[in-house]
Task: inverse folding
């Protein structure tokens, strides 16, 4: 066992540049992925996990470093490129969480909670009430359903698709087009997910508008705001059990988007 450990240490020492490049790609996704990028997760814990995954990636599959100019600036540019590859993968996953926060923001706006926000302990910023609720539920789904393990597996597979130092990131027009397309699709999905609640509350607004015309003495603000909050809360309660199949469906899109982005960075 000691002999095998010595051989592993010697291999890592001889390929420290490859190990560093693998580590930088992995740490790139940790910087932007909400599960790992929260301020309440200590930086040493994230770095230790990234080091462990880099070691696992090095020992579980063949990771090659193509020939490059042996200069500090050339290797620094290679590390920056690998870091951007990890961030691009993490960006696609981050949009999954942003999608449900966007849904919550639409719901809060329709319920009359547009001016209300709560503190997000992960992002250290203000977030909509329903958006924060959706965010934590999706985070639980992301961990419990094994989606996080699937993303890490895809990250490992990316080393077999995009060799170290060969990713085309800067000036890649196809990559930019794919990113814009993903953002548009996410907005479209967010509106569709929010429609059952926002559509119902919009119908309430229309009915209240008709009642105001029919009964001018009625104070629509006194009646309408509590009614919308009450109905919105009931609708949130009724639709929360539907989030898991919705999450599974959206996550399937995320996996497809990640694979498209990885293939888009393969050198032509």
Result:
């Amino acid at each position: 066992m000691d002999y095998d450990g010595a051989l592993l240490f010697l291999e890592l020492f001889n390929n420290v540049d490859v190990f560093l490049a693998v580590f930088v790609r992995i740490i790139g996704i940790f910087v932007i992925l909400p599960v790992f990028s929260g301020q309440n997760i200590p930086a040493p814990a994230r770095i230790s996990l990234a080091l462990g995954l880099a070691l696992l990636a090095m020992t579980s599959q063949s990771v090659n470093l193509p020939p490059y100019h042996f200069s500090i600036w050339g290797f620094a540019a290679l590390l920056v490129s690998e870091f951007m590859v990890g961030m691009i993968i993490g960006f696609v996953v981050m949009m999954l969480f942003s999608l449900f926060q966007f849904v919550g923001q639409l719901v809060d706006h329709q319920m009359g909670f547009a001016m209300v926000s709560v503190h997000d302990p992960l992002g250290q910023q203000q977030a909509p009430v329903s958006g924060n609720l959706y965010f934590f539920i999706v985070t639980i789904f992301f961990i419990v359903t094994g989606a996080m393990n699937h993303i890490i597996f895809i990250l490992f597979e990316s080393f077999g698709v995009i060799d170290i130092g060969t990713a085309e990131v800067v000036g890649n027009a196809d990559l930019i087009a794919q990113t814009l397309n993903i953002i548009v699709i996410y907005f479209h999905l967010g509106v569709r997910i929010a429609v059952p609640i926002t559509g119902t509350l919009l119908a309430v607004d229309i009915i209240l508008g008709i009642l105001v015309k029919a009964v001018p003495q009625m104070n629509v603000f006194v009646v309408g705001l509590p009614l919308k909050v009450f109905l919105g809360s009931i609708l949130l309660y009724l639709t929360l059990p539907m989030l898991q199949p919705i999450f599974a469906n959206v996550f399937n899109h995320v996996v497809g988007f990640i694979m498209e982005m990885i293939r888009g960075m393969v050198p032509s």
